[in-house]
Every structure is written in structure tokens, then in C-alpha cells.
Amino acid sequence: MSQTPLLDSIDYPDKLRCLSKKQLPQVADELRRFLLESVGKTGGHFASNLGAVELTVALHYVYDTPDDKLVWDVGHQSYPHKILTGRRNRMDTMRQYGGLAGFPKRSESEYDAFGVGHSSTSIGAALGMALADKKLGNGRRSVAIIGDGAMTAGQAFEALNCAGDTDVDLLVILNDNEMSISPNVGALPKYLASNVVRDMHGVLSTLKAQSSKVLDKLPGAMEIAQKVENKIKTIASEAEHAKQSLTLFENFGFRYTGPVDGHDVGKLVDVLKDLRSRKGPQLLHVITKKGNGYKLAENDPVKYHAVANLAKETPQPQPNAAKPTYTQIFGKWLCDQAAADSRLLAITPAMREGSGLVAFEQQFPDRYFDVGIAEQHAVTFAGGLACGGFKPVVAIYSTFLQRAYDQLVHDIALQNLPVLFAVDRAGIVGADGPTHAGLYDLSFLRCIPNMVIAAPSDENECRLLLSTCYQTDAPSVVRYPRGSGCGSPVSDGLATVPLGKGLIRRNGEKTALIAFGSMVTPALKAAETLNATVADMRFVKPIDEDLIVRLAQTHDCIVTAEENAVQGGAGSAVLEVLAKHGIRKPVLLLGVDDVVTEHGDAQTILAGFDLTAETMEQRIRSWCAE
């Protein structure tokens, strides 16, 4: 490990505030080196943290944390904050079970003012804190740190609109690095980028006044200078609207400052000290570089948004039979289905790489729409396209679909529009933890009229069910887990299966395991020693009532298994069918209990809920014995 003498002396921010301003660049350098080495070993979010080092140092130097509140948007950039707030010696546990969370978490530290993980919440949360402090009269300050990608979301502007109509002492820092996870899209990032040259006219006037006495004494110099001036004027006139960035935020009631170099820690300290003393809503525009200090991350911030282990950054030979992920299965199917049907259009809310849409964008650029971090808009936009005769496919993570629930109900389902939702990361997601776990979609989707919900049990089933739901003239969802499945061969065609019909994967006696999606594989393994029947239900809605009734009539007890919350999930649907038909049978519901899940190894977490083959078998044996 590198020598970091100043950083080693900083247990908490109060020690940082004992240093002189001249020492802060060294603190930032040491912090960046420590970050490179710690994340290089544990993995985690990377480029965004490197870009926020100086800003984090300056904030904790100027603000009296934890009394003053720092609210980090999303939290991808919070590792330097964790290092400076008493957690440096635990960074080797980052994102591991029982270790540090990958995002700010209130129960982890008093310095984590607000738990985050989803985008664009910081301004609203910090505004609430600022208003609470004003009512209490305690003089504390609240700061929201939000990226230019997160600023594109509607919730951020809703909070700006509300904050600007108050007189609270709130600072919003716009960390502008022209990135979210992928490069930003839309009009706002272009608008912000133009603000970097907003003072061009002022700079030109100053230079001209200071140099005129020298230039008029040099032969030909004035002619050259005039050409330079004309060129600068051309650039400046093209960017004239950049001056409106100030007007944009001031029209929201904020006093705008910037842009400021986000890697000049001394300058940041000076500016922040001034802003902390000001009254009312303030906005500071900071320019940073994602991945700053690590050339590979600077040159490819998308690739280095998150890393597993920097020691493995050199490509390793892959086995010839490497299993494709569900995300890759979806991406391949999407391209094939688009080639067969010109009505298909693909939509993503800023998750091109994560949702497997890179190849689709390359092959069908005119049919690909990245709407930015705007899940609500993505869904309503898809509804409008469906009204126009197209067949939209919305690629979205389960946890992010929650953000568009009203639009899903009101704009899609109630109008019975044929929009397919490819819902990735369903179930436990591992290191990203509870903010990213997809554990509620079956419960919140099942109650919506007109919805078709499919849960594939393996890779080939994923392709079959995508094709089936795409051909269904109704709102539909195919939900699949993160990573790979059991490695089943995948067909190349666009075949479909009967809608709402499950199938028996294994015949046994006495106990019937009714499994959904990712739980079919562990159920089959458990059934081998239990000699149980296993049904792959394929669909959660419409559910195969005939199959459930038949299994109930021919078995002594029923076990349901799903990688979803037990409350209101697929198991509940089975109970409803049994109640409807007046069937009384012992039923064990296996799923995720009514708790907030932890971050860490996915198999460890699943085992804790009896959702691995071994723990499932043990739980069923114990239940039957009781």
C-alpha cells in the first residue's frame, strides 16, 4: 500500500479541518492513491469516485459535518466521503456481505445524511433537511451534490422548482462531467456544456484592453490580433445562449456560481466558504473529469464506471463454452426480432450497456431511444409510440421500474397498450444491495389489469417468453435475473409458447414444487432427493389455474418458490387459485421475507431465505416434519 501520511492522520473530518489549505492538494493525492488501491482489490464503482476526490475534500473541509448535511445523489461517488468519515480501515470490505455498503447508508454512519442508490433524489432530500433546520433555528447547512446526468431527471427539476420558492439556506452542487453511466443524452447536458464559455466576451474585452498598448507598436501585430479577435467572436456568438445557463437556474430562484474547476481543491475551498455564508438557495456549477487521475478510466469512463478487480483489467482468456448472460440473451433476441418486425422500437432510461442495447443501437440507430435518467418519461413515451402503431420494448431494471409505477398503470395498462417491458436484475443482485434489488415487481405488477407477466427459468425460456410476450397484443413483462442461468442451449428462432401455460419439469410424489423463474433450477435439484414434482409455471399472470388445481389434487402438500417478496407475489397467486377452487392443502411459500435485504454475495443472501437447492431441501424437510 502506498504511503499516505496525511490521510492516515484523518480519522474524521474534524482532523481534516485542522490542516492548512496548502496541505489539501496532498490530501487529495493520497486519497486518490488509496482509492485506486482499495477499489482495485475489492471492486466497485470507480470512475465517478476518482472524479469527486477534490470536491469531497473541499466539502468536508468547509462544512461542519456531520452537523452540516452532505447529500450525495445516487452515491456512485461516495467512496472518498466514506474514507474521510471513519471508514478508511473498512474499505477492504466494500460491497461484501457484512461489510461497507456501496452507497451512502444512514444506519452505517451519521455522516451519511440520506440513503441513496437511485438517481435525482438529492435536491429534494437536502431541501427537506434545510427546511427542517430553518424551523429548528439551528443554523446548520445542507448541500446536495448531483451530477449533470442525474439533473436531467424530472424529480430534480421538481425539487429545484420547490426550493426556488423558499428562502432556505440550501446549496446545490452540479458536478458536471458530461457523463452518467453512459454519455449523457438530451438538451440539458448540451445547454450546460455551452456555459463553460459563457464569459468569452468578458475575457476578450479584458485581453484587448491590456494588450492594445503593446500590439500597436509591433508591425502587423494588430492585423493578426484582429483576425484572432474575429475568430473568438465567432465562437462566442455561437455560444451566446450559454449565458442563459445562469438565467436558467436564477429563474428557478437560485443564485448561480460557476463554472469552477472541480479538481482545484484550493479554489473549491474559497468558493465553498463564500457560498456557505450566503443566504437562500445557491447553485454551484463544478466541472470535473470522470476517472480523473487514472488514464484508463479517463479515456473510457463507461468501461470503468464499475470494476471487479483492477488486477484483472487485462482481458483474460474465456472458456469457449462461457454461458451468455440473460442480458446478452435479451440483446440478441431484440436485434433478431427487430430484423423481423420493423415496428419494433427500443427504449432505455440511460442504461444502454447495462440492459444489453449496444448492438441494437449500432444496427438500428433510428429505432433506438435513450431518454436519459427519466423512467417515467420512458414509459409514457412508449405508450405514445404504441398509440402510433409501433411495438415499443422498454429495457429497464426491476428496481428502476418502480419509479414509473403510475405511468405503467395509467398510461399503459389502463389503455391496454402493447408495450413489452424487458425487466432485468429481477431478484437478488448481490453487491449493489437493497436499493438495486428487484424484489417487488411480481407483487406490484400482479394487481394491474391487462398485464401479462412471464418469468423464464433458463436462457432458452427467456428467448421463448420474450417472443411470446412481444406477440401478445397487451402490456407485458418478462423479468429475468442478473447474470447467467444454468447454461441451457438457446435457439435462434422466434418461436412462442402457449400464453399462460406452465409445464411439469419433473414428476414425483407427495410434494409439488411450484417454481417461478430463477427458482426452477434449485427446485429441480432439491426435488431429486425429495422425490418431488416440479412445475415450471412460466407465467405469473395469467397463471395456469388448471395446472395448480391438478397438482393440488394429486399431491399431499404444495411448496411455491420465487425470487421475489413473499407478500403479494407468485406464491400468493397460487393461494388465490386454491381459495377460488375451494381446495385446502398445506402450502409453504418460499421467497424473500418482509425485511430489507443486505448487500453481498448473492448465493449467501439467497441461502438465508432458503432459496438455494440445499437450503430449500432442508426447509421443506423441516416443514413436512412439523
Automatic annotation (TrEMBL):
Binding locations of Mg(2+): 148, 177
The organism's place on the tree of life at top rank: Bacteria
Reactions catalysed: D-glyceraldehyde 3-phosphate + pyruvate + H(+) = 1-deoxy-D-xylulose 5-phosphate + CO2
Entry binding sites for thiamine diphosphate: 76, 117-119, 149-150, 177, 294, 375
Known partners and oligomeric status: Homodimer.
Family statement: Belongs to the transketolase family. DXPS subfamily.
Name of the protein in question: 1-deoxy-D-xylulose-5-phosphate synthase
Organism lineage string: Bacteria, Pseudomonadati, Pseudomonadota, Betaproteobacteria, Neisseriales
